[in-house]
Amino acid sequence: MGFLSRYSGTDIIDLGDSYSVTILQHLPGDAQEAAEAAKVKAVANVESDGENRTVAVETSQDMARYTTLLLHAAIVGWNLTDERDQLLPLAPDEQRLASIKRLPAEVRTRLREHIEANMKAEVRTPDEQRQFRGAGDGGAPVGEGWPGDPAGSPAPGGVLDPAGSL
Q1: Are residues 88 and 78 in contact, defined by beta-carbon separation less than 8 angstroms?
Q2: Strands 53-61 and 40-48, how do they pair?
Q3: Domain span at residue 82?
Q4: Measured between alpha carbons, how far is 77 from 80 in angstroms, rounded to an integer?
Q5: Cα–Cα distance between 93 and 115 in angstroms, integer?
Q6: What is the tens place of the pLDDT at every residue in 21-76?
Q7: Domain-embedded: residue 128
Q8: Total count of domains within the chain
Q9: Confidence of residue 121 (pLDDT cuts 50, 70, 90)
Q10: pLDDT for 89-113, tens place per residue?
Q11: Is residue 117 part of a domain?
C-alpha cells in the first residue's frame, strides 16, 4: 500500500430523506492551502506626515469563499437534486461551483464542519494505532512507562514537583 493511499478514504454524510454527500476524508495540501488563503485577507495602509509613518492593517474574513473552496475540493459525489428533482451537476467545474453555491447555508456549514474535523484528525496506520493507548491514557506507547527515571514517576493521583518528589 502506497503512502498516499492512507489518505484516500471518503465519508458519506447523511442529510436525511435518503440524500447524502460523499467527501474526501483528507484534502490535498494545495486545495486546503487555497481555501485557507481565501479565508483571511489583510490589507496594509501606510500613511506618512513627513516625520511619522503609520501602518494600519485591516483584516477581513471571507467565510463564504472559504467554505465554497473547501466544499469544491472535498465533495466527490452526491445525490442532491434541485426543485424539479434533477440531479445537481458536479461537472463541469462551473456547474459544480454553481451547485455548491445553491446549497442551503446550514448544509454548507454542516459539510464544512465535517471537513474541518477531518483536517484536524490524526492518521495512524493499524500498527501505529496498536502501539498507543486509548484517549485519556496518556498516549505512552504500550509497554513503556513515564518518560525519564521511573523513580521520579508520580503515583496514581500524585503530582510530580520540579524536584521529582511527590
Answers
A1: yes
A2: antiparallel
A3: 3-122
A4: 9
A5: 20
A6: 999 999 999 999 999 998 888 888 888 888 888 888 888 889 999 999 999 999 99
A7: no
A8: 1
A9: confident
A10: 999 999 999 999 999 999 999 999 9
A11: yes
